[in-house]
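B., you asked whether I could sanity-check this one before it goes into the benchmark set. Here's the sequence:
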Amino acid sequence: MRRKIAALALATLAAFAAGSALAAPSPEKILKAWDKNGDGGIDKDEWIAAGRKEARFAKADTDGDGKISLEELKAGMARMKTHPATTGQAPPAEH
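And here's what the prediction gave me:
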């Protein structure tokens, strides 16, 4: 009986750890990691430096002001969750 409880506890812990590792970082963490000049937005150079494709910058910069705000980043990540096959995976928070 103890072995079954221990095995169940380990399996639960492993599943929790795996789920946490697969969770996308928050938009706030991404913005903080990528906004190297500290202006509160991600410009095209910062986007590319983070390993993102230049062609996708215009799609993320929905208001066309030359930088991606926290709101634009949140909206883009929400679109990725609803249409993952067409937009790709969530970007990593750190590079």
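One thing to flag: Residues 25-95 form a domain with the Recoverin; domain 1 fold (CATH 1.10.238.10). Otherwise nothing jumped out at me.
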